[in-house]
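Protocol step 4 of 6: record predicted structures for both targets in the notebook before any analysis. Target 1:
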Amino acid sequence: MTGTGRSGTEGTARQFTPCAVVPIYNHGRSIAATANALAAHGLPVIIVDDGSNAETRAILDALVAGRDDLRLIRLPVNGGKGKALTAGFLAAFEAGYSHVLQIDADGQHDTADAPRFLAEGRAAPEAMVCGRPIYDDSVPKARLYGRYLTHACVWVETLSFGIQDSMCGYRLYPLAATRAEIARKPLPARMDFDTEIAVRLFWRGVPVRNLPTRVIYPENGLSHFRMWRDNVRISAMHTRLLLGMLPRAPGLVLRRFRRKDPACAA
């Protein structure tokens, strides 16, 4: 699987050449359906194995064998979703891709919406396209209501309603800006990754488009969210981001007066 080659200048806009990055940790039962569905849409897929067990490793080896449209990156130990995504993003950038479609491996996200994300990215290649979940009855109510606290924190951290859902792991990133932000300051290694990268890219001036997309919680699905551990991390992240917002507040306010808020219609 190859990209288009490195551009001469890191910040130079590339032709729209997207790929998908799928982090996986022991989701052996669902990864083939997710990867094959993305590949069917013409997307090269980078799967990042975040230290999975032997059964999942065997499934991944069989899945990518002889495939040019699938690439497997294997991390030696489990480091967390954020670490796996960071590795995938950097690999995609080095391969010459311009954008990354991030999607979970557990079957929560509707792969049929991949062309819609790509169409938004093609229309506004400088933008981050964030999935805005449409849930069915499978969503745990505690998880659903808990998200609203993070939404409120993010609206304060950005002084904007531009990011309508910062926790959805289904989104399209412009890689040049994302890589530059990773180089500026490392991103969180675990579940706080999705929110922090969204806020930091917003601070960087990356426009945001919000795309409604169906999200389910599969029956007997494997979740790696740990209520106490990850909520502590998320609380620390919001403290960090709120403090980071303060020196940026004048610029964020000024941005709203100079141009339309970076949010695009959902």
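Target 2:
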Amino acid sequence: AYGNVFGATGDKFLSEYITKVNADTDFNSLKNDISLAFRKGRAAIVANDYATRDAQITIIKEKLAMVVAVRSVFYMQAGKSKLITDNGAAAFHDLSEGYGFIMSLRYTNKPGTNNPYFSKSEVDTMLASLTSGANGLWTIDTLGAKLDVISSQIAAKFGFTVAQAATVN
């Protein structure tokens, strides 16, 4: 799994987003935390130390969920900004990426609960809000407010601010 997360097998997808989030000073320990948890977990498996292994699994799940949450907010806010400056056309990429990351929130795992940070129903409600209106994501006159509400919900649940996530590139 470590190789897949950090691009050792040529799959850079998750590694790319971890690196982008980690590049921001507000989240600059994520990559190291994830890497260290993978290595400690592997060592614990070899040593038959399952309590340590399980603790590292919890860290990995928590940190990967944070990447998904931060990118969700980042793309919502980037899309909002482009709605204003480009009248919507250039926002589609960011809104599409954000939609995908929001959809992924239901697959996260909140530490100590064995539940996601957001249930399928909560995620579906956020996505329905994004696509509501006569033109869905292209209902530009009301979309900005929806993006702010959803961004705030995600940020609050994960303990960061919208402003922190919006500056991650």
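Step 5 preliminary note on target 2. The helical segments are 2-5, 13-22, 30-46, 50-86, 91-104, 120-131, 140-158, 162-166. The chain has one domain: 2-166.
Proceed to step 6 after PI sign-off.
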